[in-house]
Specification:
Shape: elongated
Strand content: under 5%
Distance between the termini: 48 Å
Number of domains: 2
Order of helices and strands: HHEEHHHHHHHH
Number of helices: 10
Radius of gyration: 26 Å
Oligomer: single chain
């Protein structure tokens, strides 16, 4: 009889085991399975990738770009692994770098080539708030990119007024415009809202 079955039978009869005991039983069972897998792989002339193989709890482990977390009521949920998010942000930074010399339309076109595939792969992730934050971060970068391309305060003022901003709003953004990242918040959110980027064709993750 396996240790896991023994624990379950005893608990069914009224016995109680601390979490450490259950974990030890599961880890020993997992180690036996891993030994069997190694033997099978040897017969098939395959090699186990030891750097990605371990007998441990599922929480925090990365699997094909996902990791698992415990939601309300103990439900196990899927999330995009931290490394996959970091890789995504690195690629977005490359596409939206403020020295690329391309228009927002050209940047949006490149985003359309990259983001839909990433979104389709991670559509099983159960963390909508993460996708919402990434969408907001991307729009922030695009607003900063546009300010950088306008460069001069007079140009920023003229273009923002053309987009429907008031004189007061345009004046606040045009003041000390070299602070691209800081100035791309607040007032620019009103001048270039989500609908602006939807019309531009910038993909969304959420």
């Amino acid at each position: 009889m396996s240790g896991d079955v023994h624990v379950r039978i005893c608990e069914h009869l009224g016995g109680r085991f601390p979490g450490v005991t259950r974990r030890n039983v599961y880890e020993k069972a997992g180690e036996r399975v891993l030994v069997g897998m190694r033997k099978l792989y040897d017969r098939l002339h395959l090699k186990v990738n030891e750097s990605k193989t371990a007998v441990t709890r599922a929480y925090g482990r990365k699997f094909l770009g996902f990791h698992f977390w415990q939601g309300p009521g103990g439900e196990i949920r899927r999330a995009v692994a931290y490394k996959a998010i970091a890789t995504f942000k690195k690629r977005i930074r490359q596409i939206t770098r403020r020295t690329c010399g391309r228009s927002l339309n050209e940047v949006a076109e490149e985003l359309r080539r990259y983001m839909p595939g990433w979104k389709a792969y991670f559509k099983l992730a159960q963390t909508p708030s993460i996708f919402q934050k990434l969408d907001g971060w991307l729009r922030h970068r695009l607003r900063a990119l546009q300010l950088k391309q306008w460069r001069r305060g007079t140009t920023v003022y003229r273009e923002i007024r053309r987009m429907g901003a008031s004189e007061e709003q345009a004046g606040r953004v045009a003041l000390n415009v070299c602070r691209w990242w800081h100035k791309s918040r607040y007032e620019m959110n009103r001048v270039m809202p989500i609908a602006y980027f939807d019309k531009l064709g910038v993909p969304r993750l959420s």
